[in-house]
Amino acid sequence: MAYIVTCKGEERNIGVEERHPGLYTVHLGGKEYLVDYHESRDNLLSLIIDGKSYEVDIEVSESGEMYGVDIQGDHFELEVVEEKKKKLARKLSAAPSGRQEIRSPMSGNVCKILVKQGQPVEPGQVLMILEAMKMMNEIKATVAGVIGSLKAKEGVPVATNDLLCVVEPAE
């Protein structure tokens, strides 16, 4: 499994592979560590990392992503998130906003326009149908707003990256 661990604002990628129960290979900072893991009692771990023994006390948040870790007298606050989950969260938080120019993703013919200038639209709403290589492709709004200008015309060919319409943010 791949994780992103954040400590004091610094992110690190960590890979963990189980070799057999209680024995793991951990990849961190370009290095590989052999880790023997044993939970001696709730939230108290005994780790042997490359032959050196550590006792680790862990406090887990309700979300299961925040950890308070005490090891050899030092305390660390860690966020541990699966890499896929973190990347998805970043992608979703980077959703488009503001004025959006909707451009043709390919060359083709505009078959049907389903909106008019000044019409409110929602994210994912189909704005028009574009035919390319005998396939009908839906062109959708990426944000909520109002159709500010409509450049495409039914029956008229468009090239890749041609401006089809503009969605202005709703006020």
Structure description:
This protein is mainly β. It folds into two domains: 91 residues, Glycoprotein, Type 4 Pilin (2-Layer Sandwich); 70 residues, OB fold (Dihydrolipoamide Acetyltransferase, E2P), CATH 2.40.50.100. The chain contains one helix and 16 strands. A hairpin with a 2-residue loop joins strand 1 and strand 2. The longest helix is centred in the middle third of the chain and has 11 residues. The chain is elongated.
- Number of beta strands: 16
Structural class: mainly beta
At the fold tier of CATH, the topology name of the largest domain is: Glycoprotein, Type 4 Pilin
Distance from N terminus to C terminus (CA atoms, Å) equals: 44 Å
The whole-angstrom Rg is 26 Å
Determine and state the CATH class of the largest domain.
Alpha Beta
- Largest sheet geometry: 8 strands, antiparallel, barrel
Strand content is over 45%
Mean pLDDT metric: 89
Q: Percent helix among the residues? A: under 10%
**Major sheet: order of its strands?**
1-2-3-4-5-6-7-8
CATH architectural category of the largest domain: 2-Layer Sandwich
Catalogue the unreliable spans: none
Pattern of helices and strands: EEEEEEEEHEEEEEEEE
Q: Based on CA inertia axes, which overall geometry fits?
A: elongated
- Tell me the number of helical segments per DSSP (H or I, 4 or more residues long): 1
Q: How many discrete structural domains?
A: 2
